[in-house]
Amino acid sequence: MPTTRPHQIAPETFLIPNLAPGGPGAYVPVNSLVIRGREPVIVDTGAPVHRELWLEKVFSVVEPEDVRWIFLSHDDGDHTGGLLEALERCPNATLVTNFFLVERLGLEVDLPLHRIRAVDHGEQLDVGDRTLHLFRPPIFDGPTTRGLYDPTTAAMWIVDSFASMVTDEDGLHDATTVPADLYEETFRAFNSMVSPWHAWLDPAVYRRHVDEVEAMGVLTVASAHGGVHTGAAIAGAFERVRALAGAPITPDPGQPGLDELLAASLVAPAPAG
Length: 273
Ligand SMILES: [Fe+2]
Ligand SMILES: [Fe+2]
What we know:
This protein has nine helices and 15 strands. It is an alpha/beta fold and 273 residues long. Strands 1-2-5-6-7-8-9 form a seven-stranded mixed sheet. Strands 10-11-12-13-14-15 form a six-stranded mixed sheet, covered by helices on one side. The protein has a two-stranded antiparallel sheet with strand order 3-4. Residues 74, 76, 141-142, 160 line the site of one fe (ii) ion (FE2).
């Protein structure tokens, strides 16, 4: 597994990357973000399998006692992996969720209700030197999902949207360096598989929602499961997402996919003697 490090993607805005295996030479990013403004914000808390690495990376860019906000985009496990540890190590942090997220995640973990602030899509969060805008991303796999837009840097956390595999750390930093065929195939598959409802969308209605997100005027887009998009790549990714409306669902890889995973995980026995 290639080593990954925190990477600045916009002023005082750091991608916290980790990778999961995605087949020979390919990896699935499991990212989060830190916005190190006057009131530092941790944006999502990674996956349980990366917990120790995640904590190490996050606290290499921000001191735990300086963290004022822990923003959870939604309650999926790959976004809540380091949550309890982060709450414990950041005593001055308030957890930013919405009501339904508390209801859902409260079935799995003991949430400190007195440290929670509910902020939903369409609302804003004042973090001292900037006001973060919460919005519903174009692609999402959980009903509680809210993305973040920072107007001071024009950087966006688009959560599970814009996912695709990468082959190395460069692909995490810049999605345009991912081999075109891998990007094309996995962007389509990932964005379809997490939001299979796209097949029933009216393209004209969906376009209005995607247009609204794009119209925020974003310069840098960070995805939880893909490389960072900048420049022309942003418009291209929004267009790929629009094209999913009414299009067929990417089928689940099924048993052959599982068999492939199993074969890749089998370790050859050590030679006798
Ligand atoms: Fe998710
Ligand atoms: Fe996710």
